[in-house]
Amino acid sequence: MTSVDYKAVMIIAAARRISKGNEVFVGMGLPIMVAMYAQKSHAPHSVLLNEYGIVDPMMHKAIEVADPAFGERSVQLCGMTDALGWLLRRADIAVLGAAQVDRYGNSNSTVIGDYRKPNVRIAGSGGANDIASLARSFVIIMDKQRPEKMPERVDYLTSPGFLDGPQAREHYGLPGGGPEAVYTDKAVYKFHPVTKELFVQSLHPGITLADVREDTGWKISAAPKLLRTPLPTPGELRLLRSLDPNHVYLD
């Protein structure tokens, strides 16, 4: 049996959410691969922007977001205030990474464990909280799903999803629409329109619902008719891998 590159399945599945002409706010890490792949394949006229104020860079290979070359042939370099303010009126979709995601789509990129005595201290919010608070809609991509990465409640709430359920974002005055989907190396998850809880919408090739539940920190529900995430074609895999020749993000 041919082995499945689940990171590629996840990235390409998330990239399909980006449409031609979309204005896309791009977080750090794997979101860069998602946005680059979409722009180089089915969404060539999508406009990319990140929190540093780099508008529509024309990247040919994946690099770290702090690398000055990230802004190659960009149409504008603006400040962080302008970039994050753009979320309120312009961005069609944002893509975020996370170390943890919980049942309401809240994400953690700050610490694992107790905040005062953490097991692991991560990079922190950067612009993630602003993006999750302000974006019209956003998706989250997270590799290596396991129960401690998808707990019922995140160890630390870095970026708001639906907080503790329906109407919570409105109660706290968050203008953005909240998360739309979560993509992991196991499955694609959506949010119930009433309860705002995650449910399994699509299983990746070779993954069962039992596999997903074993790697989730609560008994997650599933769509009545579970879908199968498409397996990337050889051409799609070649394109994706060509964008990261130095293996910055891909194995």
Structure characteristics:
251 residues; Glutaconate Coenzyme A-transferase; eight-stranded mixed beta sheet; 7 helices; 23% helix; Glutaconate CoA-transferase (GctB)
Describe the structure.
The protein is built from seven helices and 14 strands. The chain is α/β, with parallel strands linked by helices and 251 residues long. The strands form four sheets. An eight-stranded mixed sheet has the order 2-1-5-10-11-12-13-14, sandwiched between helices. A two-stranded antiparallel sheet has the order 3-4. It has a two-stranded antiparallel ribbon with strand order 6-7. Helix 1 (6-15) crosses helix 2 (30-40). The mean pLDDT is 93. The longest helix has 11 residues, at 30-40. It has one domain (6-242): Glutaconate Coenzyme A-transferase (3-Layer(aba) Sandwich). It has helices at 6-15, 30-40, 80-89, 128-134, 168-171, 209-214, 234-242; strands at 23-26, 47-50, 54-55, 76-77, 93-97, 100-101, 107-108, 111-113, 118-121, 138-142, 179-184, 187-191, 198-203, 221-228.
Number of separate strands: 14
Please give the order of strands in the largest beta sheet: 2-1-5-10-11-12-13-14
Radius of gyration: 17 Å
Helix fraction? Answer: 10-25%
CATH architectural label: 3-Layer(aba) Sandwich
**Weakly predicted, low-confidence segments:** none
Strand portion: 15-25%
The general outline is: globular
Secondary-structure class: alpha/beta
